What does this fold into?
Amino acid sequence: MKYVDEFRDGRRAKTLIREIHRITTRPWALMEVCGGQTHTIVKQGIDELLPSGVRMIHGPGCPVCVTPLEQVDKALAIAADPRVIFTSYGDMLRVPGSTTDLLALKARGADIRTVYSPLDAVRIAREHPDREVVFFAIGFETTAPANAMAVWRAAEQGIENFSVLVSHVLVPPAMEAILASPSNQVQAFLAAGHVCAVMGWTEYEPIAARYHVPIVVTGFEPLDLLEGILMAIRQLEAGRAEVENQYARAVRREGNRLAQETVLRVFEVGDRTWRGIGMIPASGYHLQERFARFDAERRFHVGDIATQEHPACIAGQILQGTKTPLDCTAYGVLCTPQRPLGASMVSSEGTCAAFHAAGRGLGAVARPLAVLAAAEGSR
It folds into this structure.
């Protein structure tokens, strides 16, 4: 598979791993801020091949995982309304709310539809003018441009039966919240390449300077991650704290200006609650007042829903990197991908789900790094 296998080359992986071992002289703790990166690191066993003192901390990089429980309950309340066609990406359907999930609600007769773009939801609203169509707009900066465009198009075309339940969060404020925490252990970050493809990395430069922490914009393939780890450790060993770009094939410093302009036409920055972390100031997008009529929370009066997490779930501590799934007594017992207690298990990008899929802590025999195994097989 051209353009994929070149980023999974076993010989190159071995070279990078050897170099990481060669330059490392002391313990370091690095955090990746992307669920896709977490999945690759755990699936490929990259963290197990690093020097014994180098630790990967899996951060709040899964958008499904950090969507607050109260937002899921708001979605359930709206979707249960017989007037509503509720639309969402498929990964939100099994996220448990306080009492049920969207998939179970759909099985009971609610009109809940999986879409692949928010513009699909706008089309459905245009085709069903007698129904209220709601789109569950979650995610980091990556999905914000498309969601903003959906609202803009609905306003432009006069589609007044369309609205969005917004739960957008922003990466840089979360990184600052982690670094400012008294329990912080992070000494360097691997930044999410897809977020930076939209936003660039200028927002990360003051963070690196203020907290003296290296930040490396990194891709998602095994070689991307190994190279990003190597670049971060080189900085740490040299006492540098800069923003570097490993993902040069997709990311520019200024990002995608057109996408940024689209977002700022519709959204504004405000406070946002993160599941397991709590409220982080100026860490999310909200609809501008001129687009308030497209706000599903206002339209369906669900703004005051309160919730409580399952007492056995420690997803909050896992998202902040102070614990791993192996520290959770419910992991693999009360909490499984089939019966998840929290979103960190239900999402394919969640840390708990990644650990479970790799058999971590479940008595499974450890599997070798896939790229290295492939290299051995090609000799």
In short: The domain at 5-55+173-245 is CATH 3.40.50.11750 (Rossmann fold).
